[in-house]
Amino acid sequence: MGKAPAFFVDDVQRSFSNGFDLKLKDFDSAVAVGNKTYVICGTDDPTSSGVRILNKLTGEWVIPTVLGTKPESFKGHSCVLLNKDRILIMKHNSKSNESVWFLEVDTQFIRDQKKKLGTEVVSWSKGVIGNAKRPLVISGPSGVGKGTLINMLMKEFPSMFGFSVSHTTRAPREKEQNGVHYHFSERNVMEEDIRNGKFLEHAAVHGNLYGTSIEAVDVVADAGKTCILDIDVQGARSMRASSLEATFVFVCPPSFEELEKRLRARGTETEEQIEKRLRNAKAELEQGRSPGLFDHVLVNNDLDACYEQLKNILGISESMNTVPTSPSKVFDLPVDFSLSKVNEKILINHGAAEQKVLDLSSMKGGAPGRTRGLEMYVL
Ligand SMILES: Nc1ncnc2c1ncn2[C@@H]1O[C@H](COP(=O)(O)OP(=O)(O)OP(=O)(O)O)[C@@H](O)[C@H]1O
Ligand SMILES: Nc1nc2c(ncn2[C@@H]2O[C@H](COP(=O)(O)O)[C@@H](O)[C@H]2O)c(=O)[nH]1
After folding, report:
1. Which among 47, 52, 264, 348 would be 20 to 30 A from 11, CA to CA?
2. Ligand 2: which of 232, 249, 250, 280 to mutate, most ligand atoms within 8 Å of CB?
3. Which residues of the chain have pLDDT under 50?
4. What is the pTM of this model?
5. Is there an atom of ligand 2 within 6 Å of 251 CB?
6. How far, in Å, CA of 88 to CA of 70, rounded?
């Protein structure tokens, strides 16, 4: 592990002309953004927020609300400021697919969160080499067959699709496994996680809380798979308004009577719950027709026919279930290096003949999710 981080002199300061002295510990680094200096702590302490901010005008230190999944350890790293709104951090002595992180300090997401929370806010976003597949959002009333269709897709195309495992406060059904079907949560824990910005969307559905965590979608995308989200119409609406560019499919029953028959035949809900779900289904079926919300509406009458239609929407056929995915090449990054920025390229400088480059020209996404579309290559 390299000792002190290499600094890029234009962005990083250790003391200020106004007399405030910035004392940094080993492995910490500091990046100036306007009147503030962001100190990124290279500590293993899991209780540490990892970031503190010095207001250079007043000399006051602020511990910000830190959103996103923070990296485990930042011992030995280099950083550079991008567009005055995020800091790129690259870990020394690491694999290229694990090395790139962004600390967003003034992006639109951060400005929105500052307004909402009334505190200083920063957010981590992991950098991902390559692009993610477009996620699939499936909505429809309870009992229409969403889960059945999703299981068929996952069984036929296991290497292509992965399921976004939601959090819920409802009790597990027989045979449902924690972490597989849902992350079953206590309400107070889930509410706390929502406040801490861990969810892409959440909604109260049939009297319980349900939500899609940032992590649930990102782990599937990181595995190079298309992420399938089974969420209610409120969740679909939130996702439509977010930066998640998904395909939105609404599944309808052939009739209300058939929906009731399926829900009862499934035998997983009490009479009271069935009645609640059927009442909610009426509103959901109306909302499913909201203009601009869903890209496709499927009627699940004959299951096999509906499944074929879903595959047509996704542009997939049987022959594709063995198509290998081609992961990006993984590099070993040196034990020490500095970074310099040339337009949208970051040069990774470590005194060797070969020049490694991180190309940000197709960068997209960002907090609260991953930052994708990065390329790393050797010149
Ligand atoms: N086309 C179909 N014809 C007849 N039965 C079906 C059809 N599709 C699904 N089913 C059955 O209907 C029941 C409800 O399906 P499923 O559990 O997949 O619904 P869901 O939309 O995922 O419900 P929820 O939102 O409550 O999780 C299941 O018993 C399933 O086997
Ligand atoms: N908004 C969200 N809705 C979700 C999520 N996960 C599931 N759901 C929807 O809840 C109902 C009921 O599900 P059940 O498993 O209790 O039958 C169903 O319509 C699901 O689509 C979520 O993360 N967010």
Report:
1. 47
2. 232
3. 1-20, 323-324
4. 0.78
5. no
6. 13
